[in-house]
Amino acid sequence: VFYLNSYNLYLITFGEILNLIFSSLAPSEVVNTPDFLMSMAYSGFVMNACWKVFMIWHKRPLIDNFIRDLRAIFPHEEESQRSYHVDFYLRKCRSLSKLMSYWYFLAIWFFNLLALMKYEVTSKILEDPQPVQELPYFIYTPWNWRNHWSYYLLYGMTSFAGHTSAMGTLSNDLLLYALISQIIMHFDYVAKSMKGYKIKGRGEEIFGGVMENRKSDMEVVKYFIEYHSKLLSLSERLNDIFGLLLFVHFASASVVICLVGFLMTIGTSFLSLFKLLIFLLTMLIESALICYSGQALMDASLNVSTAVFTGDWLRSDVKCQKMLILMSKRAQRPAQLKATTFIWISQETMAVLIQMSYKFFALLRTMYVKK
């Protein structure tokens, strides 16, 4: 199923690229500007999805090793899971996954079925003598498929290609969010444990939510320093896996948002406007989810430094305090989600994305008005 859907997706994407090439080579008076720009927006979204599917498949050994190491530090015992608040992070991740899945599924099949429903209503209900057959997306074909049996075959292929692209994009984003959520859970556990730890000589110490009397202060400090270093290493490995994917996403998203916003302002039918609005919201929601995840990762890693200073560590010996100073200093450089070395993803990234899209939109709008 994966290979069949992937081949179909790449085939339809190739047809969209050919349609863009031939449209750009055609005389300007022949080209329908809104359709051409809409085709560019669709192609940008689909090519980004193809890139994500290919890269995740290509980097599956790195992902397997990453998940294996993440599983190694996951709390498997029920008592440990309560101290980590696993249920809270699981519910949060499931809720967001369901919400995003419902939105993507409804949005993509609204796009897929709109052209067919329009044709059926026009021909069957309104009884138009010359109903126009359209595909959900613009692709190049070497034959005339209108009023031909191949129309329904092409319609099914393009619809499932759209579905595959949407689900491929969604799967990539939810995988990233799930991995980040687990890293955040571990950072929060370290911060909570460091802040709530009771120094020896002042009663029983709280270590990982379990009453413990055997470990010395130095052993606890060494444990948390190693734990923190492992989390920082996992954060860097996460960037190695998703960095280039995120860079391509934000580069393509700025262009797609610009094109969709421009098409909404040049005058179109209500149905087309509604379709563009859904497309725009989908791109914004996807980008906002990634930026939210990056900001949450940054905040969780910074909380470790605060927890060291607000804990009970002033009563520990000098060796522990020196080691904790180094740990706190390192924690002040937060773990960050990076789109390669060019973009550090946070809430500010979302504002920058909208600003860039608006600049492209203003330029495109000015050129269109002058023309």
Query: Class by helix and strand content?
Result: mainly alpha
Distance between the termini: 47 Å
SS strand fraction: under 5%
Helical percentage: over 70%
Number of DSSP-assigned strands: 4
Separate helix tally: 10
| H/E series | HHHHHHEEHHHEEH
The low-confidence parts are 201-214
Mean pLDDT: 86
- What does the radius of gyration come to? 26 Å
Largest sheet, strands/sense/barrel: 2 strands, antiparallel
The neighbouring-strand order within the major sheet is 1-2
Shape: elongated
Properties at a glance:
single chain, 371 residues, mainly alpha, two-stranded antiparallel ribbon, two-stranded antiparallel sheet, 10 helices
How would you concisely characterize the structure shown here?
With 371 residues, the protein is mainly α. It has helices at residues 2-25, 33-58, 60-72, 78-84, 86-125, 150-196, 217-265, 270-310, 318-331, 347-370, and strands at residues 205-207, 210-212, 337-339, 343-345. The strands form 2 sheets. A two-stranded antiparallel sheet has the order 1-2.
Structure write-up:
The protein is mainly α and 371 residues long. Helices cover 77% and strands 3% of the residues. A hairpin with a 3-residue loop joins β3 (337-339) and β4. α1 (2-25) crosses α6 (150-196), α5 (86-125) packs antiparallel against α6 (150-196) and α8 packs antiparallel against α10.
What layout of secondary structure does this protein have?
Blueprint: H1 2-25, H2 33-58, H3 60-72, H4 78-84, H5 86-125, H6 150-196, E1 205-207, E2 210-212, H7 217-265, H8 270-310, H9 318-331, E3 337-339, E4 343-345, H10 347-370
Antiparallel strand pairs: 1-2, 3-4
Helix pairs in contact: 1-2, 1-6, 2-6, 2-7, 3-7, 5-6, 5-8, 6-7, 6-8, 7-8, 7-9, 7-10, 8-9, 8-10
